[in-house]
């Protein structure tokens, strides 16, 4: 069948789907809205889970946080699968170029041994922490409520895996497979890493998805990324001439910068919902960020030695200021 | 013998891939359907990176198959040089 | 300058192992049971998670790269489709019914599957398995979204698409896929893998996506073909995950065999019932047909499923218990389903119709044993009633199967003239079933299936209280627009008028 390609003007019958018209008015919806709002089943759920008959298949009450509408937790980046994937594919190309730049020019071998060792000691064990973060976000995505929130958590989980893999490649590039073996041994046995490992393992048994969001994405990452990537990698190592390491970590820096806007938005909306929520978020943030700071200290010491206390203190203060802006005062 | 198959979208990218598959698997049957091409081979099918590279004249990563793959059947074994589908019966 | 010692290039397998498998560790601050609390209760014994094989060794960098390429292609096509009124290229507006069913019934299932795989991505104690499940989770989000986006433009011009989110939770026929996915999500992790990863993805999705999507291409619908094939390229990974998972369970411990076999029996039948609707779409709703449901079944069911079960026979697996009954039903089910949809079309948010003489010829050629003998006479009768101005509508309430939730419209496997009905009494209540398969599923887990939400019962409760108008309002169905016979519908009129406008100079 051949159709004349000139544009035919025909009368559109409606602008959008009913559920979107109810939320946003009768106007064309964005692809983010179409792909995210109300796509999780909400009514007439058939069976109770055999793995926990006290829960519903989709159950908003398994967290202490209460939202009148969970779809209020909008992602300021408006990520749905497409623009998320395209964004990461672009970043991935940059990361690839950075790795091949460092590799092809032999920059890894030009690093002073002492700095290389610090990079390996601090960064390689973190690939396990990133794997823990992946499992935690997979959990939040799996048990959290409403697609708008949980899809972003799944994207976050995949990012955590990507970071774990970039850190592994960094280890291979700077120190071959032995670096990964040593990093894992440190993660498992080195005293300095045990508070961190314990933190992650404690997270793995938290089954309130929103508390886990606070523990992992707010508290731990909120301190870990500034301390490791800004202070140690970009600050300390680069200043001493190891900017090759910073190149290999560009993804993590950009990623934290981008994703914290989403994390902040989630916290802000949840806290603004009610005093009940705010009090719980404060309690969780206080509890977990205190522990996260303590877990970071021995790690930061590996690079910054005696300055570690001061640097961690500064970042804790910055973290508190950040949280205060979203309505969580600790 | 059981048949393994792979179906690819019918487009410019897959034309040389299909040629390469047929070259490496002489017992292959090619079924062209609307928008897709399904290739059946009795027992097992091996797709070789080298043959595809000969056909397209550039380096090829077998994971690129993912982009135009529609479906397959059989146990998968993949490494950097070949992608194999096989039934063990 | 120093000579650079080239580092040994890692093979794909080694690289994947280091970059993925090696990330995990055995927890010591909490026991394995605390960290992975759901992997014991189903009775599946796993001794060594490291024996899990990853067939597609995708790391995130490759995942983003290849998926982005697929996404660019997909959205370029649907943008062009929307900009150029691509909907006018379809063969006939009747075809839209298939898309409406897809959006109401299948796309929400994609999302549900994504949710389930996010849980599995956390609950399984092996990194390889977890990562494969997580990738499937994010892929399923992709599928739900690409489907909604591809069909969004149709919604702007045609009826029946607008309330898919309401239909998902309230519409009587949507409860069929809903109960299927709710069943899987309420199961333990291993059963979920057999339900979705193996039975649905491996045994059945080829039937859903491949011939039907090829049919969409044949009917000029590039938007749907594109999402179908683009989604299916992920399915190749998902199917392989399902197959690896079942082999893994069977290889780990011989005691797993009877449990796995039971799930295969159950989920094959659940899936087969669910896909009955696809058979109807293929045989009746594609104005230009690529192949019949029977032909598709022969390729993807008999041939491919047969190969699969011969392969698994080495573990002691036999074909699913319902396999023979399925085979006996193939030549009947699409006709029985379409007849039911036609009779109840006052209550569907898509149109149905009496097939044309031409189409009946095709059906009789494709179904030489059954169509002329059993179904042509019924269509002829319905035709006569319609011509007399008294079209048949079945205003009685359908008796739904407690398990699959389809009205009991299918016939006995060995007697196509009598409706198959089964009954079980449990704790003083009677439950009805459409088949032996569904009855067995109930009897194995009655405490689960008595919880099923039954839409027909809902009709008599508040807020509907038996009022059909109130029910339509509740399911957001607009009478006279969304429902009824295609013949005389607004979709028919609009499509004809717009097409006329597009192909002529007026």
Could you explain how this protein is built, in words?
The complex is a heterotrimer of chains A (330), B (89) and C (506). Chain A has one domain: Ribonucleotide Reductase, subunit A (Orthogonal Bundle), CATH 1.10.620.20. Helix content of chain A is 70%, strand content 0%. Chain A is built from 13 helices and no strands. Chain A has helices at residues 18-24, 31-36, 81-104, 107-110, 113-123, 126-143, 147-189, 194-203, 209-239, 243-248, 250-273, 275-304, 308-325. In chain A, helix 5 (113-123) packs across helix 7 (147-189) and helix 8 runs antiparallel to helix 12. Chain A is globular and about 65 Å long. Residues 1-5 of chain A have low confidence and may be disordered. Chain B has 89 residues and is α+β, with helices and mostly antiparallel strands. Chain B has one domain (3-86): Monooxygenase component MmoB/DmpM (Phenol Hydroxylase P2 Protein), CATH 3.90.56.10. Chain B contains 3 helices and 7 strands, in the order βαβββααβββ. Chain B has a 4-stranded antiparallel sheet with strand order 2-3-1-5. Chain B is globular and about 35 Å long. The termini of chain B are close together. In chain C, the strands form 2 sheets. Chain C has a two-stranded antiparallel sheet with strand order 1-2. A two-stranded antiparallel sheet of chain C has the order 3-4. Mean pLDDT of chain C is 92; it is low at 1-5. In chain C, helix 8 (189-218) packs antiparallel against helix 11. At the A-C interface, helix 2, helix 3, helix 6, helix 7 and helix 8 of A face helix 3, helix 4, helix 5, helix 6 and helix 7 of C.
Summarize the structure.
The complex is a heterotrimer of chains A (330), B (89) and C (506). By secondary structure, chain A is mostly helical.
Summarize this structure as a short list of keywords or feature phrases.
heterotrimer; A: 330 residues; mainly alpha; Ribonucleotide Reductase, subunit A; 70% helix; globular; disordered N terminus; B: 89 residues; alpha+beta; Phenol Hydroxylase P2 Protein; 4-stranded antiparallel β-sheet; 3-stranded antiparallel β-sheet; 3 helices; 26% helix; 43% strand
């Amino acid at each position: 069948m051949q159709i004349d390609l000139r544009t035919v003007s025909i009368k559109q019958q409606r602008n959008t789907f009913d559920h979107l018209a109810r939320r946003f008015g009768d106007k064309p919806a964005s692809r983010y809205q179409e792909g995210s709002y109300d796509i999780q089943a909400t009514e007439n759920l058939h069976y109770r889970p055999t793995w926990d008959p006290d829960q519903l298949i989709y159950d908003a009450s398994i967290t202490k946080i209460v939202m009148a509408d969970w779809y209020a937790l909008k992602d300021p980046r408006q990520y749905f699968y497409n623009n998320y994937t395209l964004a990461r594919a672009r970043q991935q190309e940059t990361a690839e170029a950075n790795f091949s730049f460092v590799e092809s020019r032999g920059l890894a071998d030009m690093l002073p041994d002492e700095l290389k060792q610090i990079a390996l000691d601090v960064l390689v064990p973190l690939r396990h922490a990133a794997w823990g973060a992946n499992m935690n976000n997979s959990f939040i995505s799996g048990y959290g409520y409403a697609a708008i929130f949980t899809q972003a958590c799944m994207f976050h989980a995949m990012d955590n895996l990507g970071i774990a893999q970039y850190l592994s490649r960094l280890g291979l590039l700077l120190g071959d497979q032995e670096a990964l073996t040593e990093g894992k041994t440190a993660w498992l046995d080195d005293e300095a890493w045990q508070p961190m490992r314990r933190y992650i393992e404690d997270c793995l048994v938290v089954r309130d998805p929103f508390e886990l969001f606070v523990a992992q994405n707010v508290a731990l990452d909120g301190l870990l990324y500034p301390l490791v990537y800004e202070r140690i990698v970009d600050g300390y190592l680069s200043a001493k001439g190891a900017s090759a390491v910073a190149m290999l970590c560009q993804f993590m820096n950009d990623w934290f910068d981008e994703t914290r806007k989403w994390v902040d938005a989630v916290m802000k909306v949840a806290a603004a919902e009610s005093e009940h929520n705010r009090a719980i978020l404060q309690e969780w943030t206080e509890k977990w960020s205190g522990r996260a700071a303590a877990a970071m200290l021995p790690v930061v010491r590996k690079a910054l030695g005696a300055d570690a206390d001061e640097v961690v203190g500064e970042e804790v203060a910055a973290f508190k200021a950040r949280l205060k802006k979203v309505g969580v005062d600790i | 013998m059981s048949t393994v198959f792979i179906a690819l979208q019918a487009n410019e990218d897959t034309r040389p891939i299909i040629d390469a598959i047929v070259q490496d698997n002489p017992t292959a049957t090619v079924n062209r359907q609307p928008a897709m091409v399904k290739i059946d081979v009795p027992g097992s099918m091996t797709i070789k990176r080298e043959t595809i590279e000969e056909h397209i004249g550039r380096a090829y990563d077998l994971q690129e198959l993912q982009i135009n793959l529609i479906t397959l059947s059989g146990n998968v074994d993949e490494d950097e040089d070949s992608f194999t589908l096989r039934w063990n019966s | 300058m120093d000579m650079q010692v080239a580092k040994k290039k890692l093979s794909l397998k080694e690289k994947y192992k280091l970059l993925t498998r090696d990330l995990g560790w055995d927890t010591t601050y909490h026991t394995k049971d605390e960290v992975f609390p759901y992997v014991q209760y189903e009775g599946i014994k796993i001794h060594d998670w490291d024996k899990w094989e990853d067939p597609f060794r995708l790391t995130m960098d490759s995942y983003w790269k290849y998926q982005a390429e697929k996404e660019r292609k997909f959205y370029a096509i649907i943008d062009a489709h929307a900009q150029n009124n691509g909907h006018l290229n379809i063969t006939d507006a009747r075809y839209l019914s298939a898309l409406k069913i897809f959006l109401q019934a299948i796309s929400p299932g994609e999302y549900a599957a994504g949710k389930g795989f996010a849980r599995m991505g956390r609950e399984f104690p092996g990194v390889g398995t977890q990562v494969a499940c997580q990738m499937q989770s994010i892929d399923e989000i992709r599928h739900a979204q690409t489907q909604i986006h591809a069909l969004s433009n149709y919604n702007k011009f045609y009826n029946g698409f607008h309330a898919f989110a309401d239909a998902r939770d309230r519409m009587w026929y949507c409860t069929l896929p809903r109960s299927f996915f709710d069943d899987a999500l309420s199961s333990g992790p291993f059963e979920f893998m057999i339900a979705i990863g193996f039975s649905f993805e491996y045994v059945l999705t080829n039937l859903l996506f491949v011939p039907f999507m090829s049919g969409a291409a044949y009917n000029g619908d590039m938007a749907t073909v594109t999402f179908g094939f683009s989604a299916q390229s992920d399915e190749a990974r998902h199917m392989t995950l399902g197959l690896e998972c079942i082999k893994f369970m069977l290889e780990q411990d011989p005691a797993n065999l009877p449990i796995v076999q039971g799930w295969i029996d159950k989920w094959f039948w659940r899936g087969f019932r669910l896909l009955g609707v696809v058979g109807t779409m293929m045989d009746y709703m594609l104005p230009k047909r690529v192949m019949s449901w029977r032909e598709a079944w022969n390729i993807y069911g008999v041939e491919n499923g047969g190969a699969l079960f011969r392969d698994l026979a080495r573990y002691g697996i036999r074909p699913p218990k319902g396999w023979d009954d399925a085979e006996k039903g193939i030549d009947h089910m699409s006709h029985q389903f379409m007849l039911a949809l036609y009779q109840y079309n006052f209550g569907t948010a898509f149109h149905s119709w009496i097939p044309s003489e031409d189409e009946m010829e095709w059906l009789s050629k494709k179904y030489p044993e059954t169509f002329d003998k059993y179904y042509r006479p019924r269509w002829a009768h319905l035709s006569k009633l319609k011509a007399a101005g008294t079209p048949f509508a079945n205003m009685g309430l359908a008796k739904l199967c407690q398990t699959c939730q389809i009205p009991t419209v299918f016939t006995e496997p060995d007697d196509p003239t009598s409706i198959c009905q089964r009954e079980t009494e449990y704790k003083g209540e009677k439950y009805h079933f459409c088949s032996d398969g569904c009855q067995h599923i109930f009897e194995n887990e009655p405490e689960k299936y008595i919880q099923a939400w039954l839409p027909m019962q809902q009709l008599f409760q508040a807020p509907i209280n038996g009022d059909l108008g109130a029910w339509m309002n509740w399911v957001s169905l607009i009478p006279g627009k969304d429902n009824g016979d295609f013949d005389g519908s607004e979709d028919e009129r609009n499509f004809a008028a717009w097409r006329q406008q597009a192909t002529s100079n007026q």
